[in-house]
Amino acid sequence: MPEERPPASKSREESVRQVFDLSMSPEEFAARHSHRILCSSFDEYEYSDPIVDRWIRRFHFIVLRSPELLQFYRQQYLTAEEIAAIEDELNDPRGL
Predict the structure, then answer these.
(1) Residue 95 predicted with pLDDT over 80
(2) Cys bridge to 34: 30, 44, 56, 58, which one at CB 3.0-4.6 A?
(3) Percent of all residues in the chain with a pLDDT value above 90, rounded to a whole number
(4) What are the structural domain ranges in the chain?
(5) Strands, E, within 1-96: which ranges?
(6) How far is 51 from 16, CA to CA, in rounded Å?
């Protein structure tokens, strides 16, 4: 049985468009930007636009449940220099 999620509020719908670049695939966005998103509950809601809803669920699956996929997409979308820069940010003791 599919998981029931409450509908996203109008403000949450607007926030999705402010936080995420939906012109990118969720795979590329995860590869490029997930290291700067420390927590997110966007996937706990159902969005009125089914494309946005699928985008958010896919992004969260990659970032929160599949580190192997995240690494795969970083290799696919990023240069070696970009990956090294992300690793430097993640290992910086001062935080992001």
Answers:
(1) no
(2) 30
(3) 79
(4) 10-87
(5) none
(6) 12
